[in-house]
Here is the input.
Amino acid sequence: HLSESHVCLLNKFNVVDHHLLIITRDFEIQESWLTAADFAALGSCMAVVNGLGFYNAGEPAGASQPHKHLQIVPLPMAIEVDIPIAPIIGAALEKQDGAIVAAPFPFQHGIARLTDVDWHSDTVGQILCDRYLALAQHLGLLDTPQPTTPTSPPYNLLVTRQWMIMVPRSRSSYEGIPVNSLGFAGALLARDAKQLAHLKTLQPMTILAQVGC
Here is the structure.
């Protein structure tokens, strides 16, 4: 139980141990815009779990289930660093001022700082939602400060205690290699050794550029 609107489950098809799902109690489609209630549920988990939260907005963004759900994987994701792509994002945040910054990635994206967020605050859901909507408007996914349609264009959203990054999507895979939000964290998944060898030949940034915008 997270709230009257959300529950938290262990993922039956987990990628890593303790892979969590945050799901709406009432059915909503995965292409729905996220709300302050969604972010309040995410925030309540991230207040106690140092993890990477993420959302795959629609099938072109790597979503495989129709019921609206966010996900959290605990950190670290790799031995050397919590999140493989985090050093590049951290460097961009240090070098640039402004509410939204960009890193030297070969795909459209926006990054918002979250270092000032109190994850135990009653207003964390609205604060995160405001920054999410600002990113969506900055990237052209929204024409107005608030959604006027029930569904969004496809995108991936990744959230840590330090930053939030949004990546518009053009397609779900490239040359047979599927990509969801974890791909933009630097964690691409291969189905077998043959696909892994192909992935290495293509190079990760090439794949991300091809499925982004």
Summary: The beta strands are 6-10, 20-24, 51-57, 69-74, 100-101, 110-113, 155-159, 163-168, 173-174, 177-178. The chain has a mean pLDDT of 94.
